[in-house]
Amino acid sequence: MEIDKSQKILVVGLGLIGGSYAQALSDQGYEVGAITKEASDLQFALSRGMIRHGHTQVDGDYVGGFDVVIFALYPHVFLQWLKDYQHLLKPGALLTDVTGVKVPVVYPVQQMLRPDVEFIAAHPMAGRECCGVVNADKAIFNDANYIVVPTAANRQEAVEWCKSLGRVLGFKRISVLSAEEHDQMIAFLSQLTHCIAISLMTCNNSHHLKDYTGDSFRDLTRIAKINEEMWSELFLLNKEELLRQMDIFIDKFMLLRNDLAAENVTEIKNMMRQSTANRAYFDQ
Question: Residue 46: which pLDDT band, with cuts at 50, 70 and 90?
């Protein structure tokens, strides 16, 4: 199953990712509408041609006119939206999301969902340290990764459709993971890195660091400029996996710290060589 130009697409939530989805799809000729709570966000998206039309309230006739619905909402808002409004969805509609955790979202959604619509989860591994539709830019998907997260409840046709959506959006690499594999991976690659950046930026309260720093510190702490509402929710929803990764990191950090204290140059160099070798995989 491929995504085609006859499918009308609704984006629910015009933030950074929802707006970037809308822009990418509209620029390729898809009819894209939106529901978002702020009138100013809706007007911005309309003025930039990101969407063709939209609403700030959930309208039954409007929602029922779409073949595809993309949810770009916080997890708890997404779940509540479906509880309140799934009866408005068009029979046969395909639903997907951009949510950063999957186990606490995918299974509850599929359990509550009407049998005549299908939800196939996805995670665009793209973003910026800023938020809001005013910062939306389809270019963030270039060279980025896109993960499709099916379950046994999904038809293979829906999985292929979701992959097709990733290709249309412009992602470089499309992968398929289970919800459990996704959350294990995301705890390490995304959530732990945000924890490290947050911790590092709260170690020193000087307002003059920018006068002395080099690129390494800027690169390492870019993601410390963070949306606390969204990320605290994601951390808590994936708490067990994230705690496991934090413990592994703490063990490794203490190993390096203790080798330094003991002036164990051989082990310090071994760790550096391993780090360099593992990082090289990202450059292939």
Answer: very high
Q: Per residue in 185-214, pLDDT tens? A: 999 999 999 999 999 999 988 788 888 888
Structure-block tokens of residue 182: 């996704």
